[in-house]
Amino acid sequence: MVYQPAAGARDLLPLDVEKKRWIEDRLQQVFDRWGYHRIITSTLERMDTLMAGEAIQRQMVIQLQNGEDDELGLRPELTASIARTVVTRMANATYPQRLYYNANVFRRTWESRHNRQQEFYQAGVELLGAGGLLANAEVLLLVADCLAALGLRGWHLILGEAGITRSLLSAFPANLQDQVRSAIAHLDRITIDSLPLSDKLRDRARIIMDLRGPGADVLQKVSSLDLDEEQREAVNNLKSLVELLESEKKFPLILDLSLIQTIDYYTGIVFEVVNDTESQARVLGRGGRYDQLLGLYHPQGENIPGIGFGLNIEDLYQVLLCTQQLPQVTPASNWLVVPEIANANAAAFAYAQKLRDSTHLVRVEIDLGGRDADAIRQYARDRGIAQIAWIKADGSPKIEPLR
């Protein structure tokens, strides 16, 4: 029997890990520079936490049996877990809180394709306790800084507004809203045409579906709809954000009020980061504003505003592969320390430790015996090791460069 990873999981070999860390280290440096601090939450959560008040579909969560009453599952995303942690473990926190994460998530897939991936890696941020224009702009400009740090070009941001889209959908009959919402999310005009809607509502659905393009054009279209005062205020806020982002000229921006995320806790702006250098667009990350999520977990039900995003490490990895920026080999050791005789073993370990105590990273291997001098040299060459230190019984080294 050949043992393989579980269906939907995979192993990362050392070179895969080096490439993954290259991406994560650059993202972490950006997060640090913007004043964000890392948070690590439990991989395993209660189902009522993970589902975020039904905002996340149960079938998305990989559930576990623990033989007790609690329903448990593996996190399909990080935002709900961080929201739960902040309001229950950081009650005296000063806001705003700037948090970032780098972790794996698990999502059940119900497509028929064999071994469909179910474990993913994400890095992202949550900005909690701040609403309004500046907080929204900070998160979107932080996305741009992250991709610039990776040297990624040829991407654009698709920006929507969940509150506006949801309010526009409220005009439809309650029993059809989910179907209209799904059709708009998938740009499914056939379904819109087949639903039992009045001509006026069918036209409204088509208009919502077409609210995509340059910011000024979309804002003009949506302003022409019959909006109430709250909707107009939301449109004006979105207009201010678009103008601020376009003045920064950090990235191409597409405004899309048909953008609907599958996770339904968003209350304000939503966005997708899309790479468009390939023949097929690839979504590199998603995010948005969720001003009612933390209230689900707060002991007094207090709503605390929040906004964040997650970048998909695998998708970034695939896009960056063709740029030749990622490491092509695992780092070679700098030294191979070899005790010449058994009496030199202790001295060899001491010399190796002295090398490792350098103020900068020095990779040092100890030869574990069983090879003659020629085999040791061949091993070092095969591994790209720069120098061998042959250690005598008295601890004195003989240095042999191999390059």
TrEMBL record:
Keyword Oxidoreductase: no
Superkingdom field: Bacteria
Pfam families: tRNA-synt_His
Aminoacyl-transfer RNA synthetases class-II family profile domain residues: 23-331
Subcellular location(s) of the protein: Cytoplasm
Coiled-coil intervals: none
Recorded metabolic or biological pathway in which this protein acts: Amino-acid biosynthesis; L-histidine biosynthesis; L-histidine from 5-phospho-alpha-D-ribose 1-diphosphate: step 1/9
A GO MF label: glycosyltransferase activity
Stretch forming the signal peptide: none
Record keywords: Amino-acid biosynthesis, Cytoplasm, Glycosyltransferase, Histidine biosynthesis, Transferase
Function: Required for the first step of histidine biosynthesis. May allow the feedback regulation of ATP phosphoribosyltransferase activity by histidine.
Subunit structure: Heteromultimer composed of HisG and HisZ subunits.
Family membership: Belongs to the class-II aminoacyl-tRNA synthetase family. HisZ subfamily.
Misc. comment: This function is generally fulfilled by the C-terminal part of HisG, which is missing in some bacteria such as this one.
Name under which the protein is recorded: ATP phosphoribosyltransferase regulatory subunit
UniProt organism field: Nostoc linckia FACHB-391
